[in-house]
Amino acid sequence: MFVKTLAETLGTADHVTGEAFESRRILLARDGLGYSFHDTLIMAGSTQRLEYKNHVEANYCIEGEGEVEEVATGRRWTLRPGSMYVLDAHDAHIIRARTDMRLICVFTPALSGAETHDADGSYNLPG
């Protein structure tokens, strides 16, 4: 057993910030669990197109409001605390944040923590 805190992640290389998001990567591949666990902030008014071609991702909203759109169909779902969306088929999607949002995210396979989004919004497979 081990214990980690968000405070231990903040301000480290595992605390990744971008123009529209902050990813606090609490569990990563080096933890040997087969998945990674992230506490992610999405900034109000932002829109991000993402497509995780090499990962399955589950997201659980704990704060804020926005929507997720499935690119292939144009179907949209409102996100608010208690909503979960799962990208189980490497779905291209668009996240729109109406307010600041906070998501708890799980990726499999686990991220190393050094990934950055490619031009198409995906991450490479761990090397």
Automatic annotation (TrEMBL):
Which biological pathway? Answer: Amine and polyamine biosynthesis; ectoine biosynthesis; L-ectoine from L-aspartate 4-semialdehyde: step 3/3
Q: Which InterPro entries does this UniProt record tie to the protein?
A: Ectoine_synth (IPR010462), RmlC-like_jellyroll (IPR014710), RmlC_Cupin_sf (IPR011051)
Gene3D superfamilies, alphabetically? Answer: Jelly Rolls
Q: Which family does it belong to?
A: Belongs to the ectoine synthase family.
**Reactions the enzyme catalyzes:** (2S)-4-acetamido-2-aminobutanoate = L-ectoine + H2O
Q: Which UniProt keywords apply?
A: Lyase
Q: State whether keyword Lyase applies.
A: yes
Protein name (Swiss-Prot/TrEMBL): L-ectoine synthase
